[in-house]
Design goal:
Layout (H helix, E strand, L loop, with lengths): L2 H58 L5 H24 L4 H22 L6 H70 L4 E11 L5 E4 L7 E8 L8 E10 L12 E4 L5 E4 L1 E7 L4 E8 L7 E9 L2 E10 L1
Antiparallel strand pairs: 1-2, 1-3, 3-8, 4-7, 4-9, 5-6, 9-10
Helix pairs in contact: 2-3, 2-4, 3-4
């Protein structure tokens, strides 16, 4: 026998041995898979039997029926509507409500899928019922929380209303105090106004010699002289005071000065004056005279003279010319 023939035979023997080993391992593996498949089938059968037993128990104990299955769907729909109502009426728990609504919708989808099967899986429906009860409990918690918040809001609103009423009352009192204070200040201001007494008005003729004499003839009048006594008033602040006079002719026209004199009266109106004089007042009776120079010839008739200080009328008199 040659060497090549011997090598060929040895190689064939090695191949056969490897095939035998592979066949043996494959047989072992198939046997193991068969055993595992048998165990799984047995476990599935047990679960199926257990599920059947559970379904039968639930049916025998009247835990579930087709009507109760329909009640579960109705309850889920009502619960979803309740959650929608909570969402519309309160935004504080909006995110949590959305999560619960999605869970309810998921349960409803599961119930619908179970209903499409020819045979009821009451065990699974029972689990869904428990989940629904959990969601209902959560919803009750939301309702209690929202009711508490609403009660708190009502209390806060009532408190705020009372505080606003109190604030309005205080504001009204403050306004009243301001008005009373302003009225008091006005009275003090009026009380501090100078008053003129012993008012004497006369028409003055100035002769070519410079001498002055009183006259009753309009054609001879060159000046209107108004003298009075400013009465002692301790409420009046001391210092310079300007006394204004207004001369009004028979036509109710104000005799104006060369340079216009306009004051703001106590009634907030602008008024033309005829003449003015500033004195230093020291809270004691002071005699003064104010002169108005006639700019244009005046006619005969009755004339009025009004005296003003700080916008207030402090005295008046009249005279006549022929």
């Amino acid at each position: 026998m040659s060497v090549p023939t011997t090598k060929k035979r040895n190689f064939s023997i090695l191949i056969i041995l490897l095939l035998l080993i592979a066949i043996g391992y494959l047989g072992y593996f198939i046997s193991k898979l068969n055993n595992l498949n048998h165990d799984i089938s047995k476990e599935i059968s047990g679960l199926i039997e257990e599920n059947k037993e559970m379904n039968q128990i639930l049916i025998n104990e009247q835990v579930f029926s087709d009507s109760k299955n329909n009640d579960l769907k109705s309850n889920l729909k009502l619960m979803l509507q309740s959650y929608d109502s909570l969402e519309q009426s309160n935004t504080m728990v909006l995110d949590s409500i959305d999560i619960q609504r999605n869970k309810i919708q998921d349960l409803m989808n599961k119930v619908e899928k179970l209903n499409t099967k020819s045979k009821r899986n009451w065990r699974e429906i029972y689990k869904l019922q428990k989940e629904a009860e959990t969601l209902r409990g959560i919803m009750k918690g939301y309702i209690q929380t929202i009711d508490s918040l609403n009660t708190l809001n009502v209390n806060l609103s009532n408190t705020l209303t009372e505080k606003n009423k109190t604030l309005n009352k205080v504001n009204k009192q403050n306004e009243q105090f301001k008005e009373e204070n302003q009225a008091l200040q006005d009275k003090v201001a009026i009380g501090a106004v100078l008053q003129a007494g012993n008012i004497n008005v006369s028409a003055i003729r100035i002769r070519s010699s410079g001498n002055q004499s009183e006259t009753t003839r309009a054609s001879k009048t060159n000046m209107i002289k108004t003298c009075c006594s400013l009465i002692e008033n301790k409420l009046t602040p001391t210092g310079d005071k300007t006394i204004y006079i207004k001369v009004i002719d028979n036509n109710n026209t104000v005799l104006k000065s060369k340079e216009p004199i306009i004051i703001k009266t106590s009634t907030n109106e602008n008024a033309d004056m005829s003449a003015k004089r500033t004195i230093n007042y020291q809270n004691e009776t002071t005699d003064i005279c104010v002169y108005y120079d006639i700019l244009e010839p005046i006619g005969s008739g009755n004339f009025k003279v009004e005296l003003y200080s700080e916008g207030y009328l402090i005295g008046k008199s009249s005279f006549a010319l022929r």
